[in-house]
């Protein structure tokens, strides 16, 4: 019985987050995946962003910073974060 109540509370909470625009349909898609797939997605994201951040660090230490290239790299992180 308690499990049913907890599931309903969870469902209502997720619905309220969706209604407020905090989460979107991607949340439901990710939630539907098996947990090991989600962990793999998160790990891949972290590795990709870590690589981009390393590239940004290298760019910023150059005497003549290519700000357009820097912005392009930063935009890659934004794209990855949006899904």
TrEMBL record:
Domain of life, per lineage: Eukaryota
Protein name (Swiss-Prot/TrEMBL): Uncharacterized protein
Native source species: Camellia lanceoleosa
């Amino acid at each position: 019985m308690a499990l049913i109540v907890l599931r309903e509370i969870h469902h209502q909470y997720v619905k309220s987050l969706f209604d407020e625009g905090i989460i979107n349909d991607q949340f439901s898609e990710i939630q539907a995946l098996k947990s090991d797939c989600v962990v793999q997605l998160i790990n891949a994201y972290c590795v990709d962003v870590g690589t981009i951040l390393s590239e940004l660090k290298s760019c910023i230490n150059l005497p003549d910073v290519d700000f357009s290239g820097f912005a392009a790299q930063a935009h890659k992180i934004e794209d990855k974060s949006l899904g």
